[in-house]
C-alpha cells in the first residue's frame, strides 16, 4: 500500500457516518398508560372520600381532646354526661353520680348487678325486675345511713331486725308458723292487743315468768274449752276483786 492509499483509508475511517441511528421508545404508552392514569385517579378519589368520611365522623361523634360525645376522660376516671346506652358488658370499679343528681340504671327487662371473686365465680347477685327484687348472697344487710347500724339482716340461719320498733300495718296482722321470741309485745296507743290462735292452743313461756299487763283497759282471756293457769314451782295468786264463776 502506497502512502497516498494509507492516508486516504485513514481519512475515510475518521469521517462521521451519515446513517440515521435507530431510537427505541422508553416508557408506558397506549392502553397501559390510560389504565395507570385511571388507577391513580381512583386512588385519589378514594383518599378524598376517606378523608371526608373521617372528618364527618369526628364531627358527628363530637371528638375532642378530652373524649368523644358524652364521654369525657378526666384525672379521676371517665365521666358520662346525659343518657348513655351500653350494648355489651361494662366492667368498672365504681359508679357514682353527681352531687346534685341521682344515679338511674334503666333496662327494658331487668337490671342485674353481679359480684365475683378473683377466680370469676359468682358470689353475689342483685336483680331488679318487673315483678320482684331478688338478692342472692350469703348475707343480706340493710344499714342506717347516718349511724351505720344494721336495721335488717338475713342469712341461712336467722333474720335479724335491728330497728327500734317493728310495725305491721296489715289488716290480718302478723302470722308466724313457728315460735316467736321477743321480750316485749305491745299495741299502738289507744289500740287493742290481741293474741289469737284460731285452731290450736296459744302458749306463752318464759324462764323468769310471763307478765300480762293492761294499764288503762280490761284484760280478757277467751277459749273454747278450758282455761288453765299453772305454775310448776310456785303458786297462782289472785287479787281481791276476782270474780269466780
From TrEMBL:
Name of the molecule in the record: SGCZ protein
Family per record: Belongs to the sarcoglycan beta/delta/gamma/zeta family.
Pfam families xref list: Sarcoglycan_1
UniProt keywords, alphabetically: Cell membrane, Cytoplasm, Cytoskeleton, Disulfide bond, Glycoprotein, Membrane, Signal-anchor, Transmembrane, Transmembrane helix
GO cellular component: a single term: sarcolemma
Subcellular location: Cell membrane, Sarcolemma; Cytoplasm, Cytoskeleton
Transmembrane annotation, as ranges: 36-58
Bilayer disposition of the protein: Single-pass type II membrane protein
Coiled-coil intervals: none
Biological processes annotated in GO: cardiac muscle tissue development; heart contraction
Keyword rRNA-binding: no
Amino acid at each position: 500500500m502506497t502512502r497516498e492509499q494509507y492516508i486516504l483509508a485513514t481519512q475515510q475511517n475518521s469521517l462521521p457516518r451519515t446513517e440515521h441511528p435507530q431510537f427505541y421508545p422508553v416508557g408506558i404508552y397506549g392502553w397501559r398508560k390510560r389504565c395507570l392514569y385511571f388507577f391513580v385517579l381512583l386512588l385519589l378519589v378514594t383518599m378524598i372520600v376517606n378523608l371526608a368520611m373521617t372528618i364527618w365522623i369526628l364531627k358527628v361523634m363530637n371528638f375532642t381532646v378530652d373524649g368523644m360525645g358524652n364521654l369525657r376522660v378526666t384525672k379521676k376516671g371517665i365521666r358520662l354526661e346525659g343518657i348513655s346506652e351500653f350494648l355489651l358488658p361494662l366492667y368498672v370499679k365504681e359508679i357514682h353520680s353527681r352531687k346534685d343528681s341521682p344515679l338511674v340504671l334503666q333496662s327494658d327487662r331487668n337490671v342485674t348487678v353481679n359480684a365475683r371473686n378473683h377466680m370469676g365465680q359468682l358470689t353475689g347477685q342483685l336483680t331488679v325486675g318487673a315483678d320482684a327484687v331478688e338478692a342472692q348472697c350469703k348475707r343480706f344487710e340493710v344499714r342506717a345511713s347516718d349511724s351505720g347500724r344494721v336495721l335488717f339482716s338475713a342469712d341461712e340461719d336467722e333474720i335479724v331486725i335491728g330497728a327500734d320498733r317493728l310495725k305491721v300495718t296489715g289488716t290480718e296482722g302478723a302470722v308466724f308458723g313457728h315460735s316467736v321470741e321477743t321480750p316485749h309485745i305491745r299495741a299502738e296507743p289507744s289500740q287493742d292487743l290481741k293474741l289469737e290462735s284460731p285452731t290450736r292452743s296459744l302458749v306463752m313461756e318464759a324462764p323468769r315468768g310471763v307478765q300480762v299487763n293492761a294499764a288503762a283497759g280490761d284484760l280478757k282471756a277467751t277459749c273454747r274449752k278450758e282455761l288453765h293457769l299453772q305454775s310448776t314451782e310456785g303458786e297462782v295468786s289472785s287479787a281481791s276483786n276476782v270474780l269466780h264463776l
